[in-house]
Structure formats: structure tokens, C-alpha cells
Design brief:
This protein is of the alpha+beta class. The chain has one helix at 34-85; strands at 5-9, 15-18, 24-26, 96-98, 101-103, 131-135, 152-156, 163-168, 175-178. 29% of the residues lie in helices and 21% in strands. The chain has a four-stranded mixed beta sheet, with helices on one face. A three-stranded antiparallel beta sheet has the order 1-2-3, with no helix packed on it.
């Protein structure tokens, strides 16, 4: 028994059928045309082309800003240490460095919770992530270096009278922030 009966042809020449429900419909109007599907794919591709690079660059900028904020916190912790103890920490005595992690019984965790490679956010070559310690010059200025050893460098004077902090970019050549300004 046939559930559909022929009724007429529409303007395009498509046969109109009448089903058991009594509703008219066009037999060829089921689904999307190839042109409609391609149009949707093109629109999605254009949106992706515009948005993906912006998302990637915003991630890089967020990582830089996180390392700058960490450098600010390190400098503030060093300053609190100096106020309470009368001098900044001394490298080798009060602070030591190993594999990008700073340790110091009197400094960590009393003034800052931790300073290790996981604290810094930028993606840098192996062995360069985390913190480094270097000495200030005799005039308490930061030494000129072409390439930093780590993402964030703590510069300490030998006598405990000065301390500076710098945050570097992923190439370790450009200073993102310095406390020396």
C-alpha cells in the first residue's frame, strides 16, 4: 500500500507528494545543499584564521606579564628582608641557587613562598627556566650581559647593601622589567 499520493508539480518541476499526515512537502527539500555546507565551512575557516593567532599572542603576553609580576614580588620580598634584617641577603650565605630554584632558610618561605622553575611562566630553553643570581658591580649597577642565564635574575651586592631584580623575555636578551629604574 502506497503511503504517498501524487498531487502536482511545483514551479521547479519537483513532484509534490501528499503523505498520510495530509501535509504537503517538497521531496527535494530534505537537508542542506552543497553550497550551503561550503558557505558554513568557509565562514568557520575565516573566523578561525582571525581568532587563533590572537589567542596565541594573548597567551604569550599573559606569560610575560606573569613573570613581570613575579619579579615585582621578588623585589618586594627582598626589600622586606632588608628592612627587617638591616641588609639584603648575600649570595651563597643567605640565598643559594640550583637548577633555577632559589633556596634560603631565612628568606623562603618567610618573605616569599617559593622561587623555583615552576614559578616562572615563559617557555624558554631547558635549564634557563626559573631564577638566577648574579652579583652587582661595585657601583651597585647591574652588569651588562648579552644573554641572561634565567628568566628572572636577582642581582645582589657582595656586602648586602643593594639588590635588584630583572625579568627577561623568552630569548633572554630583552629586559621586560627591572627594579633598577
Amino acid at each position: 500500500m502506497n503511503r504517498f499520493s501524487f498531487t502536482s508539480f511545483d514551479k521547479r518541476g519537483v513532484m509534490k507528494m501528499k503523505g498520510e499526515s495530509g501535509m504537503n512537502y517538497l521531496k527535494g527539500d530534505k537537508g542542506f545543499t552543497l553550497i550551503e555546507v561550503l558557505a558554513v565551512i568557509i565562514i568557520i575557516a575565516v573566523i578561525a584564521t582571525i581568532s587563533i593567532p590572537k589567542l596565541a599572542s594573548s597567551t604569550v603576553n599573559a606569560r610575560k606579564k606573569a613573570d613581570i609580576a613575579t619579579a615585582h614580588q621578588v623585589k618586594a620580598a627582598l626589600d622586606r628582608y632588608q628592612v627587617e634584617n638591616g641588609a639584603y641577603p648575600i649570595e651563597g650565605t643567605d640565598l643559594t641557587i640550583e637548577n633555577g630554584a632559589v633556596t634560603g632558610v631565612e628568606f623562603i618561605p618567610k618573605y616569599i613562598s617559593k622561587l623555583d622553575a615552576s614559578t616562572t611562566q615563559q617557555v624558554v630553553p631547558d635549564g634557563k627556566k626559573g631564577f638566577g643570581i648574579d652579583s652587582l658591580k661595585e657601583d651597585y649597577s647591574i652588569p651588562d650581559t648579552e644573554l641572561a642565564t634565567n628568566t628572572i635574575i636577582i642581582y645582589l651586592s657582595d656586602d648586602g647593601s643593594a639588590a635588584e631584580v630583572r625579568a627577561y623575555d623568552v630569548t633572554l636578551t630583552k629586559v621586560l622589567w627591572t627594579s633598577a629604574n
